[in-house]
Amino acid sequence: MDRSFVPFGKPRAERADAVRNREHLLRTAREMIAELGIERVTMDGLAERAGLGKGTVFRRFGSRAGIFRALLDADERRFQQHVISGPPPLGPGAEPVERLLAYGRARITFLLDHHAIARASFERGRPVPAGDPSVTQLHIRMLLRQIGPIPSLDGIAIQLTAALEGPLLLYVSRPETDVGLAAETGAFLGDAWQTLIERLVR
Amino acid sequence: MDRSFVPFGKPRAERADAVRNREHLLRTAREMIAELGIERVTMDGLAERAGLGKGTVFRRFGSRAGIFRALLDADERRFQQHVISGPPPLGPGAEPVERLLAYGRARITFLLDHHAIARASFERGRPVPAGDPSVTQLHIRMLLRQIGPIPSLDGIAIQLTAALEGPLLLYVSRPETDVGLAAETGAFLGDAWQTLIERLVR
Whole-angstrom distance between the N-terminal and C-terminal Cα of chain B? Predict the structure, then answer.
């Protein structure tokens, strides 16, 4: 009701400022993670390094875990952007089976690369941030439909989503995973995904 | 060191007593769930109905959620017993593919039947009780090996475990699931499991 009385310029300027602050904070958080490690990223440290007030950081993220949720969210969007409009075979333009294989390997790598951030985004008393499995599920279902009629296709899309993401989500709830092991695990699970899909569609 | 001085009869009798108490408490808890619903099972209510002291119930389960963890654990053991030594096709004696199909359907039914108890066994600040996926994983891997050489077999066993249990574990973290929906979901996921396995091994 009162909205028409608020000068247009003000909220817009504030919004642009907020976006800039947010991007600046996320960039600074990434630098701190790379230099110091996740464990040593704190709300106070981030505010100091970003040259912003603690209040700004608190309003933006709510908690230390909120910083990592925001980072995860930003990377997740970028990943989905590659899937929607990036080069094939992950992006459009390849055969649906090729896209399904590429999606599996890319998603495994993404989840392995982000397991430490995902773990840091946990918060006591809040539900486990299981990502948004529906994006993976919708993509798998779309590609299966393009491949052709498969009995119980919708149920299989749900189960393949769990097959792909479940083993990596379990890693998240475990203590520190060795990086070497992670790369090996990625290849191991990627090969298994390939066999599963190739046999499903042959 | 002092153990030899303790009369043998005493600890044995106490242990048998503890087992009896435990079984009596679990049986009473099941009656209360059936009559009152899970929400109305409390530590005090259980102690009163079982005719035991509150201290006994507390020492036995530690918390209200502990009651449900104990129930889940008992049912899980019974389920695994059917798999190990029950009649085919779930138990031994059928072809490995038939056992794999039977295991999938039985496991889905088990997880759906137990989703309310599993949810009640959650505890703030404790890790999510994800059951023991390794039992399912070991069983799937054993049956796949009996079926014959499959590339990336061990990785596929991990992914099939997630495909089977993951979608049901997600239910657990959601609010109350409608029972009718649950039965329908079981058939839906069971059919998908069948297609997935039949295509994997054909």
Answer: 61
Q: Tens of pLDDT along A92-145?
A: 999 999 999 999 999 999 998 898 898 888 876 565 555 555 789 999 999 999
Domains within chain B, CATH numbers bracketed? 1-62 (1.10.10.60), 64-202 (1.10.357.10)
Residues of B within 8 A of A192 (CB-CB) are 152, 154-156, 158-159
Torsion of CA B169, B171, B173, B179, to 10 degrees: -130
Cβ contact B152–A194 (<8 Å): yes
Q: Do A159 and B200 touch (CB under 8 A)?
A: no
SS3 assignment, position A92: strand
Q: Which of A124, A155, A191 sits opposite B192 (nearest CB)?
A: A155
Look at A189 and B162 and tell me if their CB atoms are within 8 Å.
no
* Cis-peptide, bond into residue A89, ω within 30° of zero: yes
Distance from CA of A50 to the nearest CA of B (A): 32
Which residues on neighbouring strands pair with residue A92, listed in sequence order? A94
Whether residue B89 has a cis bond before it, omega within 30° of 0 = yes
| Chain A: residue whose CA lies nearest to B153 | A192
With a cut of 50, which residues of chain B have pLDDT below it?
1-9
Q: pLDDT tens digits, residue range A74-88?
A: 999 999 999 999 999
